[in-house]
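Task: complex structure prediction.
Instruction: return structure tokens for all chains below.
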Amino acid sequence: MPKFLNLWGTHQFWVGFFNALGVGKIVFSSDTSEEQYRAYGKGRITMDSCFPVKALAGHMGELLYKDINLLFVPMIYSLPSFLRGHVMDTLSCTRVMMAVENIKAGFLKEGDEFAKSGIKLAVPFVPFAEPHILPKHLWEGLFPAMPDLTLEETKRAVEEGFKALEEFEKRIRQKSLEIIKWCVKNHKPALLVLARPYHMDPGIGHDIDAEFQPYGFPVLWYNYLPLEDWLLNWLFERDLRAGLIKSPLDISDVWTSSYSSNTNEIVWGAKFASKLPWITGVIRLSSYECGMDQPTFTPVQKIVESSGTLFFKFGELDETKPAGSVKIRVETIVYYLEKYSEEIIERKLKRLGSIPKELLD
Amino acid sequence: MRLILGIDVGSTTCKYVLTNQEGQVLDKAYERHNTKQAEKVLEFLRSLEEKGFTPGRDRVYITGSGGGFIGELIGARFVQEVVAVSTAVERLHPEVRFVSEIGGEDMKTVFIKEQEGKKNRQVFMQNVCAGGTGTFIEKCARKLGISSERLSQMGYEGYTLHRVSAKCGIFAEADVNSLVKAGVPTEEIMASLFEAVVYQNLAQLTKGNTPLPKVLLLGGPNLFFKGLQEAWRYHLRRLWKERGVGDFSREQIEDLVIVPENSLFYAALGCVFTALEEEGGLYVGKERLRWWVEEGQHEQKLKEGKAGLVSSADELQSFKRSYSYVVQNKVVPKRASRVVIGCDFGSTTAKAVCIDEEKNIVFSCYSLSKGNPIEDAKDLFRQIREYLGDGEVLSLGVTGYGKDLLKDVLGADVAIVETVAHATAGLHFFPDADCICDVGGVDVKIMLLRQGSVVDFRLNSQCSSGNGAFLQGVAERFGIPLSELADRAFSAKAMPNFTMGCGVFLQSDIVNQQRKGWQAEEILAGLCYVLPLNVWVYAGNINNLSQVGKKFILQGGTHRNLAVVKAQIDFIKSKVPDAEIYVHPYSGEAGAIGAALVALEHHQKHKRTRFRGFEAVEGLTYRATTSKETVCHWCPVNCQRSFIDVYLGEGKGRPWSKVPLQEGWVRLIVNNACPKGLVEDESELKAIKEQMERVKNEFPNISYFVQKEAFRTRQKVH
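Output:
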């Protein structure tokens, strides 16, 4: 399986799913890197300015050289999201979904390279947001490659997949809560990253967030924030009472066309950041010419800054890491974080009720 | 007898050859046109007519970048440059398989292949970058103070060679600078430049083909510079041996790599040879060209141009009243007994300011960088000591190059990044500013401010478009001193339209506009006018200026040019009508002032300083190493760095280094072109990474857990 795009965010679902199917060995491609892209992706990239999409060619090319007999590249149409039920929909970016078809073509242009490597290709349509039809689509996608597979088996495996993903997310959200508790205890700030899930891939997000750790800033990610009721109720209490939102996960006060899953989560992350006192700075990552991100830039910035929280954007990320300018930017940002964090924490605390006891133990 | 004239109108020179019907050369000339191409051709034609070149009887063929439009005026037939050169080569040297022509602003290679008795040519050209061309060699030689006579005689073989990047003129200049600073003899530097040019030609303009003998070298630089010829011969000999073409002796090589007598005239000769094969190109006389030179070009010019930078003398006066302070604004020293020092170590100058506790600037000084920050610092502190006498230093702040190490070396209280220094200084003079636009000699920096912080910035130092050096270079070519640039630009009543974009394209656009008859001052005005567009849109990538804010600060050396300031103000106001635009009063010292202001904050908070004192700074011992071992290998530019090691009595040293450092010493790395070069090599990167890993466990990152665990293929058993 290529480690690409929305595999970041659904990873453990697939591990759980295939383990339940009793697949012998699951092989993931390595993280995106310039070397991978050059060695395996060259000449296979169709016109697309989105680097995360283009990078898929490198992943698929790399896997052709691995000891595998099935290449599984899901066309993810909609995503599982903790915001389901609070938003209009949780769709994937269309360009991201179609990336699979787009890049696949590059491997068929001059003869079927999958067949040449003795590898079967499965490109199923994956509507995560509709669990009742999900098994059918997966089964249809896999059936040609795995003729013994039954729909019943697929159904069970999907359940296992969801369970694995949920467990994983729970564990990571717990880690986020631990970081926040550490901040409370030590009266220290943390940073929050707002990005797309695949910016966690070191070849896509270029580990920019990690540059802040040496300066003493732990880093939280918007898609793995703790969701405990007591915490969310504390943070969103005022807005709930004022009737601005129906639940702490409601974003309709700031974002009405809530169809895109990643975008919805980014917007909610911005709201969370503007409330939680110990998040004093937000780092926004965005890839070159990302059409999905464009309309969110100003609202997200305004939401974050409305509370005095610092907001910094690293936009137009592409294939190579702009190391020099990142260093200067990080140093610049760190200076202001160090200068203002204490003040920001105090100011934000004043707007909230007393700190819940759960945060203090 | 019908005569045939071949004219080559190039980017820097005009050439012609006059022949009889057999192609025998009767007359020829090669002259610089100083951007007045049409005038030069007219001059040629006048003297040629006196010598018997007759309209209505004789024929004329023309080539070169300015050939097309002049040709139309005199009835000439146009021949494309590369075609002209190849035609001449094939006729005069049927045995030649590879041609290199290096011109003033371009270079080409031609591969001539014979297949089944038919010859075909493959041409590669590069004219988008000054690297590797004649201008590039001359510019570096001028910088080194080498006369053109001496340059032509300077050799290549037998000299120690150093890495000079020929890929880009800007990088090359930096490399030459650091070689000079490292005390490398000029002969070796020039030999290295020749090496770089040939290397660049072979690397960029062969595209996988192997140049085969015989080889023909054409164009001014190949003819005039002995060292360049030597470099070609050396490299081709080695290449041919490596690729199994043949193992030739030095004597043989002389015959296989030739610089023909008429090296400069091949394009013109090609015109003549083309004319010999066909009819046409009847010379109609010089009347229409004369009309165009005297009248036509001005009419065309007025149709295309726009009004000048200022529309009236009143407008200019009132503008100058409010902004002329930017040209000469120096810090006037004032006595103070307790000061805070701010230092800014730049790549070309190191600057320091002293401020008192009320934030008044009481002293400033600078030192032209000697490529060694320790020497620069000593120089600065000597000047400060002389000013301060037995006064007290409350605190010290540093910014710029190597700030973190200098912090320890000098005992500074704060080391801050340049952006913060500039923003702090800017906000001190102009509170609530939204944007600082710093245009220096070689870079453009745009800092966007919100809530008193730098929230975003754009830095462009890779492209010469929009920076001051470009404007200065053009003025230099026109022979206009920098101090007069602004007034000359203001004097233009009209100016040509330039298109925003890459500096190199602008360069050819300039030639084009000159051709239309635009004068130096009008072109300069036009360039000043287009500069803001290049700064904001092209280099800064900011398309919507109104989103940036309302209060703008202009700073950096280029904004000492009032014509640029005027253009900036008009540009910004056209996008943001209610903008307030200020020029930083101490533009050059902004970084040092910012460092001092942050240091003052530190003093107010902590009431103590780590400053080692003037005595200690003066007494710093160091040693500098510039060698093979200090070359940076992070990218193909291969900067020749220097290591400056300072004894502090603290620090772990660098036992793993190729230039080992004992305990108690610290190392500053200088002469690197980019921040990457501040890390010595793989071993240091490893050491840094290990250190990072430790810190990362202490301050965790959620993405690290996901990266590590999300793709585990076996699930954890709980």
